[in-house]
Amino acid sequence: MFISPIDTSALNAGATTTSTTRDSSTDPSAMQDRFLKLLVAQLNNQDPMNPLDNAQMTTQMAQINTVTGLQTLNLTMQTMAEQFSTMQQIQGISLIGRSVLSEGDRMSFADGTGKGMFDLAGAATNVKVDIVTAGGVVVDSIDMGAQEGGRHSVEWDASKYQGSTSDLRFRVTATNGETAVKATALTQSQVLATGSKSGALTLTLDNGSTVNYANVLGVL
Description:
The chain contains three helices and twelve strands. It is an alpha+beta fold and about 220 residues long.
C-alpha cells in the first residue's frame, strides 16, 4: 500500500518566518500535534495486509522534527534579538551626560582651553596640529614632535583668540621621515539623548550630530 508523504509545505513556509504571537499556525507544539494526529489517522486506516512502509514513516517524522526544530530556533533567536535590543537601550540611557569619542575634527572648549584627540596608525617622527576655522583658515599650529602610534590628546590655549570657537576645527598632519602616517581626528561630545534606528542604538550629541553606538570609539 502506497501512502502519500505528508505535505509539509505550509510548515516549511512557517519555519522561515517568526511571530511574537504563538498561534496554532506557527507554534511548534501545535504543528507537531497536527502531524501526530495525521500520522495516527494514517495508521488507523492502513491496509493490514499491506502496512505502512517503515522508511516512509521515518522520513515523515524526520521532516516534522526538522521543521519544528527550525521554528523553535527562529523563535529563540527572535527572543534573543529583542533582549539584546533592550539591553542596548538600557546601556544607552546610562551614557546620557557622559562624554564619548567619535570620528570628527571639532574641538571641545572649557575654561579657555580647546581639547581634541587623535589616533595615529603608527609611529611618527613629526606631528603637527593646525587649528583651523570652518573655512579652512589656520589660526594657530601646535608642534607635537615625535609620537608613538596610538591615541593622543592635544590642548590649545584659546584665551587669546578673538573669534567664535564654536566653528573651530583641528587638523593633524603626521609623517615618519618622508612617509605620511594616517591620523584620525576624534571629537569629544556629551550625550544628550538616545534613540534607535533600524534596530541599532543611536546617540544624540551636544554638537547637534547623531552617531550610531557602534561608531563610538571611547567613553570618557
